[in-house]
Amino acid sequence: MTETPPPPNDSSPKSSDQPAHPPREPRQRRLSRYQKSQMRRQAQARGDQRFYAGIFAIAGFTALLAILLGAIAINGAPIGGAGMTDWVEPWLGPFSKMELVGLGFVALIALAVYLRMRKRG
Asked: pTM for the whole thing?
């Protein structure tokens, strides 16, 4: 007698029925999620550090500029400082060019912080 082939609904495991990787325990998956969330938090903290370092560099530069201009205003302009009179005379209404540049720097910093906070939330 000849042997008959196994029926098509054979219950023997096939290579396509088994997953490529055995499933991990829930604890290992939880640990992996925790590590991923920690890595995301660290990346966000590094991004925040760079952002705030840039903002404080701009703020420090403008503060030094304001101190310099204040010292010049208190002690008087040095000889040959006549070119600065155009920056301190009223230009747009009661505001001088120097005041508007300062307000522009403050607005730039406020906009950068606002956009950063909006991106985060």
From this structure: 0.47
